[in-house]
């Protein structure tokens, strides 16, 4: 993936082969980025990436150790089952109105993420803390690379996603003391 400031030297062939899409900063403003991130946080489980990474990591390690594909599938399935059972054991007691343990996990994870999104949304308004901090960072702080509002916002989203994942991990590891609002 390449990040460019414009398409000055790109040909139509390059665009079609690479499947490039370019949006100038004027089209996608801060409010659009905030809204997109908050919608993702409310509707897509962030903890799924961790489970997929664990499975992929075992596949890679098995391949490196010259394991057969059948062994790799068994290891991957064992990892998935182990991760799923840990999550079910943790979240299974939280919601009695949902039939499937998988549904219970999903609903609890999304509930926590929605709470986080609602709290963050208060600060992602044009006069909110995030916008004021962004303005301050662009105007008053020296940066090694060229700082753009989109780059800073996306970095902020990465940090927030990491923090939400930490909350989800805490919730899964501390069933004695579940998170409350």
UniProtKB/TrEMBL annotation:
It comes from the Eukaryota. One of its GO terms (molecular function) is dynein light intermediate chain binding. This is Ala_racemase_N domain-containing protein. GO terms for biological process: microtubule-based movement. InterPro entries: DHC, P-loop_NTPase. One of its GO terms (cellular component) is axonemal dynein complex. Belongs to the dynein heavy chain family.
